[in-house]
Amino acid sequence: MKEILEIVDMLFNSEAIIAKGGLMLVAMIVFAETGLFFCFWLPGDYLLFLAGMLCGTGTFDVNIAALVGYIFAAAILGNYMGYWFGLKVGGKLYQRPDSLFFKRKYLASTREFFDKYGGKTIVIARFLPIVRTFAPILAGTSHMTFMAFSLYNFIGATFWVGGLVLGGYYLGVQYPQIINYVHWIIVFFLSITTFTVVKSYLKIRESHKKNQPANVSK
Asked: Could you list the residue ranges that cross the membrane (predicted)?
């Protein structure tokens, strides 16, 4: 039991993922978070940023080209996994009851992005926690063409991986003392994540309340 708790704790700790798991575990986390609906809780943005930053400071002993390549491949393949899942069984998620690792409000939030931005949601979702996990699934459920999805998938992964990993790497090279402020960086990313999730939840709840009287009248 103690070993299981340690593993779970490490999965929530980006520094531990990078230090103990190395490049392969980082890539596996990215794949899971972008491709498996029950892994939406895994670290995404700040894992990429910290990996790049620690690579730049030399703390993470890996070539930057290999780091970008592995994470880029994992992000691409993860979205393809989500797309395939959406094509095959994604519709059943709407009937799935809420649980610890799944909430139907996540689908509703992602659906709002699709209604507003269409296929570009795949690109935008890369930078939005939770939404990036469910966006490829909804793309598959909506039967977006494979070619269109692939285009958005590659564009989104390029900006997401390039921006966060290379941005972190640049800061690590130019300002190696930034390593002393890792925890503040994590707090910053977690604050953005929390704000995004809470904002989406409140928006969905408000929309539901507005639609409730109309549904009752019918």
From this structure: 21-44, 64-86, 151-172, 178-202
| Total residues belonging to the chain | 218
CA distances from 3 to 6, 14, 32 (A): 5, 18, 21
**Angle (deg, nearest 10), helices 45-57 and 146-174:** 40
Mean pLDDT computed over 107-113: 74
The predicted model scores a pTM of 0.76
Q: Residue 191, exposed/middle/buried by CB under 10 A (0-12, 13-18, 19+)?
A: exposed
95-99-101-103 Cα dihedral, nearest 10 degrees: 50
d(CA 97, CA 192): 28
Closest by CA position to 81, among listed 38, 45, 118: 38
Q: How far is CA 107 from CA 31, 39, 118, 145, 157, in A?
A: 19, 14, 15, 20, 21
Residue linked to tokens 């402020």: 181
